């Protein structure tokens, strides 16, 4: 599909992914409110939510979830936003995703498997409560 998009459209999409990575919540949510698909996906299958979670931006994650972002989506490697948040040890992000119904056992590796593999005991305890 990327071959079908013009340079201006691709540049805009890259900018949106950068907003998620950088935690620029207000600007990103403004674009979502204006019609940007909340589950926009890049060439690796990463959604805005996955990128915001991986880069530990709980406010951005919460805002995307409140606009209908799919907490269960996986990227092309089977990873979820919850696994990314657990890996980054972002308690606030993990809590937001769990409150939105994210399954700690979904994905490959799942958030639980990620926490076990990296010996993130605090994250594992949090995921097992959720």
Please name the defining characteristics of this protein.
globular; 56% helix; 0% strand; Serine Threonine Protein Phosphatase 5, Tetratricopeptide repeat; repeat; ANK repeat; Ankyrin_rpt-contain_sf; Ankyrin_rpt; 130 residues
- Class by SSE composition: mainly alpha
Helix/strand order: HHHHHHHH
Strand content: under 5%
CATH superfamily (homologous) name? Ankyrin repeat-containing domain
Runs in which pLDDT lies below 50 for 5 or more consecutive residues are none
Number of helices: 8
| Cα Rg | 14 Å
Q: Please report the first level of CATH classification, the CATH class.
A: Mainly Alpha
Pfam families: Ank_2 (PF12796)
Keywords: ANK repeat, Repeat
InterPro entries: Ankyrin_rpt (IPR002110), Ankyrin_rpt-contain_sf (IPR036770)
Secondary-structure map:
Layout lengths: L6 H16 L2 H9 L14 H7 L3 H9 L14 H7 L3 H9 L11 H7 L3 H9 L1
Helix pairs in contact: 1-2, 1-3, 2-4, 3-4, 3-5, 4-6, 5-6, 5-7, 7-8
Keywords: ANK repeat, Repeat
Pfam family, one: Ank_2
InterPro entries: Ankyrin_rpt, Ankyrin_rpt-contain_sf
Describe this structure in words.
This protein is mainly α. It has one domain: Alpha Horseshoe (Serine Threonine Protein Phosphatase 5, Tetratricopeptide repeat), CATH 1.25.40.20. It contains 8 helices and no strands. Helix 1 (7-22) crosses helix 2 (25-33) and helix 5 (81-87) runs parallel beside helix 7. The protein starts with 6 loop residues before the first helix and ends with a helix. The mean pLDDT is 96. Keywords: ANK repeat, Repeat. ANK repeats lie at residues 44-76, 77-109. It holds the Pfam family Ank_2.
């Amino acid at each position: 599909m990327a071959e079908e998009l013009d340079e201006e459209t691709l540049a805009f999409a890259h900018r949106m992914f950068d907003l998620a990575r950088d935690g620029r919540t207000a600007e990103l949510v403004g674009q979502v409110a204006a019609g940007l698909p909340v589950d926009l996906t890049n060439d690796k299958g990463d959604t805005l939510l996955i990128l915001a979670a991986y880069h530990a931006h709980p406010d951005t994650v919460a805002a995307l979830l409140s606009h209908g972002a799919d907490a269960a989506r996986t990227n092309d490697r089977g990873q979820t936003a919850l696994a990314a948040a657990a890996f980054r040890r972002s308690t606030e992000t993990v809590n937001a995703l769990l409150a939105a119904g994210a399954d700690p056992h979904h994905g490959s590796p799942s958030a639980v498997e990620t926490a076990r593999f990296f010996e993130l005991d605090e994250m594992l305890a949090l995921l097992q409560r959720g």
